[in-house]
Design a protein that fits this description.
The protein is mainly β. The chain has two domains: 113 residues, Immunoglobulin-like; 104 residues, Immunoglobulins (Immunoglobulin-like, Sandwich). The chain has no helices and 18 strands. The chain has a six-stranded mixed sheet with strand order 2-10-9-4-5-6, with no helix packed on it. A hairpin with a 6-residue loop joins strand 4 and strand 5. The protein is elongated, with a radius of gyration of 24 Å. Pfam families: C2-set_3, V-set. It is found in: Membrane. Keywords: Immunoglobulin domain, Membrane, Signal, Transmembrane, Transmembrane helix.
């Protein structure tokens, strides 16, 4: 057969939890791959997701959690392109995917690195007693490890009273962080999250005055956020 190399559409592919990923590989130079053996696997050949040979498609038995969530697109095989679609992406789908083309004794593969991210912030405010407010920021449904901090109106970090992590069955992370505000006339405080994979930042702010508090939450890109500057 002809000599060829394999190029992947995007070596780093970032998708959000619950969304769809589309991973592609292309022969270079483009050529018909309909008579080749082609496929996708995870870290090893034993973890085959799809195998296509002799005009037939075989779903891999090595990886159960891809059942009913993947589609192998072969309509561009004449141009030497194969695509793997993964639906309802989970944290556990993150990692390397290998595509391969085998023509006689010629074998080449490409690697696509799928990075999965999730970010969801809720906020809870709890009054401890009349001496002060314990304010708790609770986050859930994000991945990977995000940076989190409470900041005052000047953007300075407020030392936390307590901090606890947990991970749910879907592999998503949850974090609780509390601070103690000594008096009830404290200015606005903001709970900030920064996800290093997506560059996404979320913040939820609380203004406390007397026995009342108001809260607001904003979802914005990191570059637009001034109160949540992360340490470089």
């Amino acid at each position: 057969g002809l000599q060829f190399t394999v190029s992947s559409s995007r070596s780093h592919h970032v998708v959000m939890v619950g969304s769809q990923a589309e991973l592609s590989c292309q022969l270079s130079p483009p050529q018909n791959a309909q008579l080749m053996q082609v496929g996708w696997f995870r870290d090893r050949h034993s973890q085959m997701i799809y195998l296509y040979e002799d005009g037939e498609e075989h779903s891999g038995e090595g990886i159960q959690n891809y059942m009913n969530r993947t589609v192998f697109l072969k309509d561009a095989l004449e141009e030497g392109k194969i695509t793997l679609q993964i639906y309802n992406v989970t944290v556990f789908d993150g990692g390397q995917y290998h595509c391969f083309f085998k023509d006689g004794h010629t074998y080449e593969e490409g690697i696509v690195d799928l990075r999965v991210a999730g970010l969801d912030v809720q906020i809870n405010v709890q009054v401890l007693d009349t001496e002060g407010f314990v304010v708790e920021c609770t986050s859930g449904g994000w991945f990977p490890q995000a940076q989190m901090a409470w900041r005052d109106s000047s953007g300075n970090v407020i030392p936390h009273l307590s901090k606890s992590y947990s991970q749910d069955g879907a592999g998503l992370l949850h974090l609780k962080m509390t601070i103690l505000l000594k008096n009830s006339t404290h200015g606005p405080v903001t709970c900030c999250f920064y996800n290093p994979v997506t560059g996404q930042e979320k913040r939820a702010g609380i203004v406390i005055s007397g026995e009342r508090f108001t809260q607001n939450s904003v979802n914005l890109k990191a570059s637009h956020c001034c109160t949540c500057q992360r340490r470089s």
